[in-house]
């Protein structure tokens, strides 16, 4: 039992066993960039509507695209570097250009009355619900 490693700490335990630990530590920030989910998103069922919040710190309104297509709500971000930042001579820079897209299927979402607001780095999208229609047709067998 003493040699068991909790699942959440498993990859950390593997890294300690790696003989070139210093080499792995040096390149670990590079590997986390590509596996990042992009941004955090929460979906709340608030009786007559859905409230979707996305954490988009440092992202401007014109870099965000929100779309509802046949019940699928998509939030896409295309974060670009400004021309002002491109002219600087950085010795080390951790802010980057990035793209990310997240989506959720809302089966009873209404296309009318949608609203979105970006405030304090949090995007809030309100999607009203519509009365769910039965799309199932019973077929009798002869």
TrEMBL record:
Gene3D superfamilies cross-referenced by the UniProt entry: 2.60.40.790
SHSP domain residues: 32-142
Keywords assigned: Stress response
InterPro entries assigned to the protein according to its UniProt record, in alphabetical order: A-crystallin/Hsp20_dom (IPR002068), HSP20-like_chaperone (IPR008978), Small_HSP (IPR031107)
Stretches that traverse the bilayer: none
Keyword Chaperone: no
Superkingdom, natural source: Bacteria
Family assignment from sequence similarity: Belongs to the small heat shock protein (HSP20) family.
Name assigned to this protein: Heat shock protein Hsp20
């Amino acid at each position: 039992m003493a040699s068991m490693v909790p699942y959440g700490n498993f990859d950390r335990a593997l890294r300690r066993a790696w003989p070139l630990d210093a080499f792995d530590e040096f390149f670990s920030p590079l590997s986390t960039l590509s596996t990042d989910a992009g941004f955090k998103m929460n979906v709340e069922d608030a009786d007559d509507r859905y409230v979707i919040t996305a954490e988009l710190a440092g992202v401007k309104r014109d870099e965000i695209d929100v779309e509802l297509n046949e019940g699928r709500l998509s939030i896409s971000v295309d974060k670009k570097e400004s021309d002002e930042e491109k002219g600087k001579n950085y010795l080390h820079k951790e802010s980057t250009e990035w793209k990310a897209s997240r989506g959720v299927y809302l089966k009873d979402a209404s296309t009318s009355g949608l609203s979105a607001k970006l405030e304090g780095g949090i995007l809030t999208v309100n999607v009203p619900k519509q009365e769910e229609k039965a799309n199932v047709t019973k077929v009798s067998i002869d």
